[in-house]
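This entry is passed on directly below:
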Amino acid sequence: MFSLENDHLTIEVRARGAELTRIFSKTTGLEYLWEGDPAYWGKHSPVLFPIVGTLKNGTYFFENKAYKLSRHGFARDMDFELAARDERSLTFALSSNDYTLAHFPFGFRLEVVYSLQDNTLQVDYHVLNTGKREMYFSIGGHPAFRVPLTPGTAFEDYFLEFAERETAGRWPISHEGLIEPLPIGLLTDTRTLPLTRELFSNDAIVFKYLNSHALSLRSHSAPNGIHFQFDGFPFLGIWSGNGGNFVCLEPWCGIADSVAATQQLIGKEGINMITPEQTFRRSWQASLF
C-alpha cells in the first residue's frame, strides 16, 4: 500500500489495479471513499481498461480474430509498478506483456497518476501506444464514494447536482450487461437527481453526452459533500448496489456493447484510437468539502 498526503488530504493506493483505497479529509475529519466491504461490493475505485463495461458474448473481433475480455477489462486485476513519486503525486504503470497480448493485441503503457492540490484529488490516465499500429481501446474510472457520508444522515438525504440543466434519459442495461437500444426518461430540465435505492434496482444509470462536465454530491441534512469534475469523458455511469452505502461516479471514455453490437473492435461505440507513440490523456478531479 502506498500513501500520499498534504495539509488537507490523505490518500492510499495499492499496486493491485493501481486502485485508490482511501480518501481522508483532515479538514472535515471524514472518510470519503467506500471501504470496500465484500458483503456489498469488494472494490473501491477500479481502473477500467482496455474496455469499459461488458462485451457481447464476452468477445470482440479484431483483424478477423476473436478475443475474450471480462467486464471492464484486465487492468483492475493486474499488478502495477510504482513508476514515480514526489511530494504531491504517485504514478503507477502497467505495460503490455504476454498475458495482455493474448487478450488485447496492442503494445501499450498505461499510467495512472494520483496527485493532491489543497482539498482536491486529481486522477490522470495516460495511455501510450508502444506498438507499431493503431491501437483501439476504452478507459474509465469507477470511484465509489460513501453515502451516507456524514454520521446521522441517510442514503436518501443525498442528491446529485449537475453543473448544467439536463434533459437526459438513462440507457438501460440488459441482464447480459449490454446497453439497450432506447433510453428511458430520467432528467427533465433539471440540475438535480435525488438518490434512492430504487434508482439502481436495474443496475447502473448510464448517461451519454451530458451537457455537464461536473456534478456535486450533496446532502439536505449536512454541509459535507464532493465536487466531481470529468472533462473529456463522453459517458457517465452512476451506480450503487446490493444495499451498500456508496455511490459510484464513473467517467468513461468507452461504453458497454449494445445488444445489437457487431462485436467488431473498430467501430465499437465509444472506442478511442491512437497511433504509434501517441499518448491519450484524461483526468477527473474530486474536491472534498
